[in-house]
Amino acid sequence: MAQDEGLAELLREDLASVPGLTEKAMFGGRAWLLHGNLLCGARDDGMLVRLGKGHDGWALATPDIGPMISRGKTMHGWVRAGPSAFGNDKLRRRLLDAALAFVRSLPKK
């Protein structure tokens, strides 16, 4: 699966000032990790965002956002945002802020 280079560039710009962030090839696209914990990703099927179990209800109620499914299994606490969702600057920022808040609560690896 190829990455969405436009989405990857949006995420690079949005996350440029976040200390402790790394970017690497993962999931057939690009992934961003905060202190070693997965935060989000860019693939050709959308933006993957880690909100944490029980923190994703608001996102799943948003048009063009659905659960992340890996190998046929729902990854609870993760969502996949399609183009109309990640293309909305305000919504993309809200998703990233929620992901940063959750991932910052995890122990550093």
Layout of helices and strands:
Elements: H1 5-15, E1 21-26, E2 29-34, E3 37-43, E4 46-50, H2 57-60, E5 65-70, E6 73-81, H3 83-86, H4 89-104
Antiparallel strand pairs: 1-2, 2-3, 3-4, 4-6, 5-6
Give a short summary of the structure.
This protein has 109 residues and is of the alpha+beta class. It has helices spanning 5-15, 57-60, 83-86, 89-104, and strands at residues 21-26, 29-34, 37-43, 46-50, 65-70, 73-81.
User: Span from first to last CA?
Assistant: 27 Å
Structural class by SSE content: alpha+beta
Instruction: Work out the radius of gyration.
Output: 12 Å
The biggest beta sheet reads: 6 strands, antiparallel
* Count of DSSP H/I helices: 4
H/E topology pattern:
HEEEEHEEHH
Parts with pLDDT < 50 across at least 5 consecutive residues: none
Mean pLDDT: 95
The CATH class label is: Alpha Beta
Strand order of the largest sheet: 1-2-3-4-6-5
Q: How many separate domains?
A: 1
* Total count of strands: 6
Helical residue percent band: 25-40%
Strand content: 35-45%
Shape: globular
Q: What's the CATH architecture name? A: Alpha-Beta Complex
Describe it.
This protein is of the alpha+beta class and 109 residues long. The chain has a single domain, classed as Aspartate Aminotransferase, domain 1 (Alpha-Beta Complex). The chain is 32% helix and 36% strand. The chain is built from four helices and six strands. It has helices at residues 5-15, 57-60, 83-86, 89-104; strands spanning 21-26, 29-34, 37-43, 46-50, 65-70, 73-81. A six-stranded antiparallel sheet has the order 1-2-3-4-6-5. A hairpin with a 2-residue loop joins strand 1 (21-26) and strand 2 (29-34). It is globular.
